[in-house]
Amino acid sequence: MHKLTSRQEAILSDTRKIFEKNTDVEFIKKRKRFLNQIFPNIEELYKNNPNEFEEISTGIYSIMYNQEVKYITSLLKTKDYKSLQEYKKELGTFGRIKYLELENSGKSRLCQFLIEYEDLIKDWMDSENGSRAILKEVNKDDGYCYVATMVYGDYNHPNVIQLRNYRDNKLNKYELGRAFISYYYKYSPYWVKRMKNCSLINKLLKISIDLIVSKIK
Q: What is the Cα–Cα distance from 77 to 9, expressed in whole angstroms?
């Protein structure tokens, strides 16, 4: 690979400063800083020399991706599910205004650049070797109520806690109950992946789970 230009080096260096050096800053804030401070320089680079942009696009992805995976992993390992839920909500809206702005101004390649990165992170979060694998490991002793947490948006919601207690104190005592628990943890991550964006199903699930909790109290 030939030597990078000063413009390319500056963009990569500034991206590292935002994502690698500010360890005490929430990742969503880092993303917003990237959009506000670095992305205008990327737009300028793409406008004047699109080849130079293509040469460093993978490098930008790599810097952001590695740090974002570390951030998500830290939330999972510390079982900070509330922060993880808030992060995932923010993730869904990240850059939406910027996408529209780029599309409307005919900058489809730059819009694609942001969307591809978003998809990269989402794929990792849903992958068997990504966050799902970490969740299985850190929760192997107490389990993670995937569906209930999706419905209530909080791992520590009173109803989610009630269901965990029922699982541990009742279901786990019987062979049939243990078989159900095993089946649930095998398939519930897939169910959550398919249902998480369907508001109607989530409303129906909440009604059903509320009813179940009222019966087991």
A: 34
Rg of the chain in Å (alpha carbons): 21
Residue linked to tokens 């900070």: 80
Residue whose token pair is 């974002």? 68
- pLDDT surpasses 60 at 142: no
CA nearest 212: which of 155, 150, 164? 164
Give the Å distances, CA to CA, from 101 to 15, 37, 43: 21, 16, 12
Question: Average pLDDT, stretch 50-73?
Answer: 89
Q: Is 36 in a helix, a strand, or coil?
A: helix
Task: Please give the model's pTM, rounded to 2 decimal places.
Answer: 0.59
| C-beta separation of 146 from 167 below 8 A | no
Residue 194 pLDDT: 75
- pLDDT above 90 (res 102): no
User: C-alpha distances in angstroms, 209 versus 14, 47, 98, 145?
Assistant: 48, 53, 38, 12
Q: How remote is the C-alpha of 45 from its chain's centroid?
A: 29
The one-letter code for the residue type at 198 is C
